[in-house]
Amino acid sequence: MPRLRLAHQQLPGVTVIAVIGEMDAANRAQLEAYIAEVQPAPPGRLVFDLSEVPFMDSSGLHVLLTCATNCLKDGGAVHLAAVQRMPARLFELTGVMVHVPVHDTVESAITAALAS
């Protein structure tokens, strides 16, 4: 099973989760477990740095959307940053950007998350 490399950084008011590798059904559980481990309680503002994610299937997308839904229920937000071409195409086809903000850089995603 391909493993993701995951890291996070707790900043004042926002948690940044960096994802490295392909997000798919083979590592969905790993990503879900990591988010549950590092996400503040109640869920707050999260930024996913996707700059090192060359591919994402519907399983990875589902994890991000579930996380975004859970955060919104508790007054938080999820922002996606630095999305590569293939995942960006998936977001475009599925209309994700209507529900989850996508930013060109991690820095702009952090700024927007803190303002939300």
Describe the protein in words.
By secondary structure, the protein is of the alpha/beta class. The chain has one domain: Transcription Regulator spoIIAA (2-Layer Sandwich), CATH 3.30.750.24. It is 41% helix and 25% strand. It has helices at residues 28-38, 58-73, 85-94, 106-115; strands at 5-11, 14-20, 45-52, 77-81, 102-103. It has a five-stranded mixed β-sheet with strand order 1-2-3-4-5, sandwiched between helices. Strand 2 (14-20), helix 1 (28-38) and strand 3 (45-52) form a beta-alpha-beta unit. Helix 1 (28-38) packs parallel to helix 2. It starts with a strand and ends with a helix. InterPro entries: Anti-sigma_ant, STAS_dom, STAS_dom_sf. Pfam families: STAS. GO terms for molecular function: anti-sigma factor antagonist activity. Residues 4-113 form the STAS domain.
How would you briefly describe this protein structure?
This protein is of the alpha/beta class. The chain has helices at residues 28-38, 58-73, 85-94, 106-115; strands at residues 5-11, 14-20, 45-52, 77-81, 102-103.
Distance between the termini: 37 Å
Shape: globular
In CATH, what is the class?
Alpha Beta
- Number of strand segments: 5
Order of helices and strands: EEHEHEHEH
Q: What's the average pLDDT?
A: 94
Q: Count up the helices.
A: 4
Class based on secondary structure composition and strand pairing: alpha/beta
Low-confidence stretches: none
Count of folded domains: 1
Return the CATH topology: Transcription Regulator spoIIAA
Architecture, CATH level 2?
Answer: 2-Layer Sandwich
Largest sheet: 5 strands, mixed
Side-by-side strand order of the widest sheet: 1-2-3-4-5
Helix content range: 40-55%
CATH superfamily: STAS domain
Content of β-strand: 25-35%
- CA-based gyration radius: 13 Å
